[in-house]
């Protein structure tokens, strides 16, 4: 097949807690989480990348991957969500089957962009949206509008994919189509408790063509996820 793009949207490694009992429900310490995350990234590349002529991995960090002292992050760039993909990239460099895989991993910037079939695809983690009133979509739109006003890369997006809020959402803004990814770990009890809404977990997938920026949008859910 032609081109594969894998997105790493953050919140892969648990480095902070949001609700009181969260620290007691984490499976594995930080070292185990990093080891497992790198293993899963490489497994995904081993399964998918050889099927495509070209493959790109686009990565941003989330708030849960931040290196923190107390409740405050140390720097914008010290983030395990990005580090696990850097570790995977080093391993992929030594594998001839993955020689065609390219990695674009954020440092301190809030978003990453990539040209795909003439469209600008961008990703960001939703914790970069300014706090304030309004729905998730309204916060995302304000942030996107500010990026455009400041002539920053994310402001040029034709397709903006955001993360952080643990439930699927999508809206056509005209010049930009916005998609929010769902959780992949069985769902978010915190989201359900706060909103009384449920959200199907799974991996968000879609196809980009020269004519359409997003078609065949699917939430892929494995048997393992369905059993959680």
Helix content: 25-40%
Number of strands: 12
Low-confidence stretches: 223-228
Strands across the major sheet, in which order?
A: 6-7-8-10-9
Rg, rounded, reads: 17 Å
Terminal CA distance reads 32 Å
Keywords:
228 residues; alpha/beta; five-stranded mixed β-sheet; three-stranded parallel β-sheet; 5 helices; 25% strand
Q: How does this structure look, described?
A:
The protein is an alpha/beta fold and 228 residues long. 25% of the residues lie in helices and 25% in strands. The protein has helices spanning 30-48, 80-92, 136-149, 189-195, 223-227; strands at 3-8, 54-59, 68-69, 72-73, 101-105, 111-116, 119-125, 159-163, 169-172, 177-180, 203-207, 215-220. Strands 6-7-8-10-9 form a five-stranded mixed β-sheet, with no helix packed on it. Helix 1 (30-48) packs across helix 2 (80-92). The chain is globular.
Write a brief structural summary:
25% of the residues lie in helices and 25% in strands.
What is the topological layout?
Elements (H helix, E strand, L loop, with lengths): L2 E6 L21 H19 L5 E6 L8 E2 L2 E2 L6 H13 L8 E5 L5 E6 L2 E7 L10 H14 L9 E5 L5 E4 L4 E4 L8 H7 L7 E5 L7 E6 L2 H5 L1
Parallel strand pairs: 1-2, 2-5, 7-8, 8-10
Antiparallel strand pairs: 3-4, 6-7, 9-10, 11-12
Helix pairs in contact: 1-2
């Amino acid at each position: 097949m032609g081109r594969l793009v894998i997105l790493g949207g953050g919140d892969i490694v648990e480095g902070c807690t949001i609700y009181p009992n969260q620290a007691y429900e984490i499976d594995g310490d930080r070292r185990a989480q990093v080891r497992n995350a790198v293993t899963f990234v490489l497994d995904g590349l081993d399964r998918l990348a050889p099927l495509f002529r070209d493959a790109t991995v686009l990565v941003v960090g989330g708030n849960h991957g931040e290196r923190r002292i107390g409740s405050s992050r140390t720097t914008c760039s010290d983030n395990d969500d990005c580090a696990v993909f850097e570790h995977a990239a080093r391993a992929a460099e030594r594998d001839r089957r993955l020689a065609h895989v390219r990695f674009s991993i954020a440092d301190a910037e809030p978003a990453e962009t990539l040209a795909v079939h003439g469209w600008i695809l961008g990703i960001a983690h939703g914790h970069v949206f300014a706090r304030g009133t309004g729905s998730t979509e309204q916060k995302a739109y304000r942030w996107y509008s500010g990026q455009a006003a400041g002539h920053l890369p994310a402001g040029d997006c034709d397709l903006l994919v955001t993360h952080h809020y643990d439930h699927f959402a999508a809206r056509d803004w005209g010049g930009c189509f916005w998609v929010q990814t769902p959780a992949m770990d069985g769902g978010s009890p915190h989201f359900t408790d706060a909103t009384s809404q449920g959200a199907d977990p799974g991996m968000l997938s879609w196809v980009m063509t020269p004519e359409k920026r997003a078609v065949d949008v699917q939430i892929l859910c494995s048997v393992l996820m369905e059993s959680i």
